[in-house]
Amino acid sequence: MGGLGLFTVLLGAALPLIDFFIVNVALPSIEHDLSAGPALLELVVGGYGVAYAVLLVLGGRVGDSLGRRRLFLIGMAAFGVTSLACGLAPNAWSLVAARVAQGAASALMLPQVLATIQATTEGPRRARALSLYGATGGLSMVAGQILGGVLVAADLAGTGWRAVFLVNVPVVLLGLVLAVRTVPDTRAGRPAGVDVPGTLLLALSLVSLLLPLTEGRAAGWPLWTWVSLAVFPVAAVAFYFTERRADRRGRTPLVPPSLLRLESLRRGLALLLPFSIGFGGFMFVLAVTLQQGLEMGPVAAGLALAPMAVAFFGASLAGPRLVTRFGSRIVTAGGVIQAAGIALLLATLRHGWPDLGPAVLAPGTALAGLGQGFQMPVLIRLMLSDVPADRAGAGSGVMITAQQSAVALGVATLGSLFLALIPTAGVRGAVSVTLLVQLALIALTVVLSLRLPRMR
Predict the structure, then answer these.
(1) What's the CA gap between 421 and 171, in Å, rounded?
(2) Is the full-model pTM beyond 0.70?
(3) Does residue 260 share a domain with residue 123?
């Protein structure tokens, strides 16, 4: 796969991640325009994330069987159609339905990116491609909120918040043309059928956990949320034993337990979960703090995040050279740097409130982005380093599912904690508590990083 092909699949990786976060700065406009209450607004964000996370592993498996370029094209085309549906939604429920469909389309497209990289590159080229993938992922999450702020403020042709979805359509058309011409078609050497019991149980596990945590606070924690949370451990245990039994009987499970016997993947996933929970919650809480607490407009809120995006991207590009010299210890260093940035941001918010602008916040956000940029791309490269090429789709699906489920979990849990504290502690008090939780999660990633296997 050439440079233009790599650019094309990375474009496919960026779109779903941008759209997970792009709505954060558009929520006030959506609330006003569609008369949407808090519960519906959380579904606009959470519905996408739940559908996305639930179907990622299945998307990777189907790509292994039917061809990764074919699934990439189908997923990208569906993403464009559902983006158009989001942009034209006449009411809040229509927007929620379109967002759920958009999340499903993303789940078809994204697993093919890493699987294609794994199947078409080797050695230094693979290391560089995986570093660029990691850079694209982190940068997209930050850039989504920046781009959302710019588009809402620009109010292109009177479209307001709708532009954050409609802008995807021409990008998707370009991506489809490039993909047909530049992305090679690959598939697993021994394609496996769909593991129906495993797929259903994984879906039940993720939905029963993520949906009540996303909707519970806004809905007042009704009975169904507690019933759903009680279902989660039962479904998760049933999923594990179903997959283990399928593996022992020679069938191909959705998540092969043998993959989790790979030390690099297993220990990497253990670190990825707290990292992604903290990252997802941090991005949501910071967006609300900037707009509602510090009363910044969409553009100013975007500018406040720009240093974080630039630092993340720079660290991601430097990662491959640093790994050659320092190995996986660069992940440990990244955690320490990120913690310093969050601590500086916390001190700035505590002592400078409310007279704070983007420039004052820049040192803290830049340090946080620098640390995150040293952690995420290196971690992705490590987790996939020992996954066989014929299991690339399953391996990337497992990793991305864990990452996106944890991001959605972070938005739901840290976001709910933050919003629940505002009535009594105010925005400053609420963001302070949430950032302390974030620091605890970062400390956990630092400890776990000390147990990562060496990288070559």
Answers:
(1) 39
(2) yes
(3) yes
